[in-house]
Amino acid sequence: MSDDLTDMTAFVRIAETGSLSAAALELNQSLAVVSRRLARLEDRLGVRLVNRTTRTLSLTDEGALFHLRCARILTEIEEAKAEVTQGREAAVGLLRVTSTFAFARRQLAPLLNEFGAQHPKLRIHLDASDRIVNLVDEGVDLAIRFGAMSDSSLIARAIAPNAYVMCASPSYLDRRGRPHVVEDLRTHDCILFGSPPSSRWSFSDGSSVKVKGDLTTNDGELAHAWALEGAGIVLKSAWDVFTDVREGRLEIVLPDTPLPGSPLHAVFPHTRLAPAKVRLVVDFLSRRLRTEWEENIAGLASSLGRAG
Fold first, then answer.
1. In this predicted model, what pLDDT tens digit does every residue of 248-271 receive, in sequence order?
2. What does the pLDDT look like over 114-145, one tens digit per residue?
3. 2-17 vs 31-45: helix axis angle to the nearest 10?
4. What domains can you pick out in the chain, each with its CATH number?
5. Nearest CA to 77 among 27, 161, 12?
6. What does the chain look like in DSSP terms, one character per residue?
7. What is the Cα–Cα distance from 132 to 195, expressed in whole angstroms?
8. Residues 6+ apart with CB under 8 A from 165
9. Cα separations (Å) of 190 from 250, 294, 295?
10. Degrees, nearest 5: CA angle 43-53-36
């Protein structure tokens, strides 16, 4: 392939300069080398590309057609090299990102819109999904996930703290009473979600409690909506509920009972040199999310300060 491209380049310069000597001068090669490249290319193709005399040079019909194709191919190669080289330092092309429904809608959508405005040559596709997307198989550049990944083919970089909290609407807690100890959760309506929904809630000290509830779902956003409607207690990421807690729509239950932390991670395929669009967006998200955490989330309750 390398010889083909080198010989094609020599042929295009011969065709466009109209002489072997001029092509040799442009390519900074000897006349003998350029002549040998042309002869080798003709031998491989099995056709004559150039009519040569001692004083003139012209393309054959086959040579004219081949020149058009070669010139187009070499131009596309140069454009691709330029795009890739630019992509080392600037965010260009298509950036595909995936995260959970809740985090994608509440946090990532506005931040990626802002990032895209700063990089006009970048296009962004955000896939909101609670399933674990296979980044390599599905051609996704970046996932924002809670917790570290065990897949050794992926790189996981912690970009912001996170904590989980138990919360419910004030109307539910006024009606059913506020739990004082973990064991009180057994007598409450708990909203369970996941695939499958888990009925065992675990705590930082290694203990756990089995909870129950009549409402279960695979969608964390539905569980959140049910909690707002007063249906029961839900276990959610602080990122998902901090605005509702701050504005009084939800109230943290057992705020002094620490739950395991699960930091936010940027996850991307394991490559020797990540594209600039990935490196730049990860740095941007890390700065903005850490600021958001420190300014708006960490101080909501004492349990949030134990985030991992």
1. 999 999 988 888 878 999 998 876
2. 999 999 988 899 998 878 888 877 878 899 99
3. 110
4. 2-87 (1.10.10.10), 93-162+262-306 (3.40.190.10), 164-253 (3.40.190.10)
5. 12
6. -HHHHHHHHHHHHHHHHSSHHHHHHHHT--HHHHHHHHHHHHHHHTS--EEE-SS-EEE-HHHHHHHHHHHHHHHHHHHHHHHHHHHTTS--EEEEEEE-HHHIIIIIHHHHHHHHHH-TTEEEEEEE-SS---TTTTT--EEEEES----TTEEEEEEE---EEEEE-HHHHHHH---SSGGGGGGSBEEEEBTTBP-EEE-TTS-EEE-B-S-EES-HHHHHHHHHTT--EEEEEHHHHHHHHHTTSSEEESTTS------EEEEEE--SS--HHHHHHHHHHHHHHHHHIIIIITTS-GGGGG--
7. 11
8. 235, 236, 237, 238, 241, 245, 252, 253, 255, 259, 301, 303, 304
9. 14, 29, 30
10. 35
- Taking residue 164's Cβ as centre, other Cβ atoms within 10 Å add up to 26
In the numeric block, the tokens 């539905």 are attached to 222
Q: What is the pLDDT of residues 139-192, one digit of tens each?
A: 788 999 987 666 667 888 999 999 899 999 999 999 999 999 999 999 999 999
Query: Which residues lie below 8 Å from residue 247, measured CB to CB, with a gap of 6+?
Result: none
Q: Has this prediction a pTM greater than 0.85?
A: no
CA 81 from centroid of its chain's CA atoms: 23
Name residue 245's amino acid: V
Secondary structure string (H, E, C) spanning 71-136: HHHHHHHHHHHHHHHHHCCCCCEEEEEEECHHHHHHHHHHHHHHHHHHCCCEEEEEEECCCCCCCC
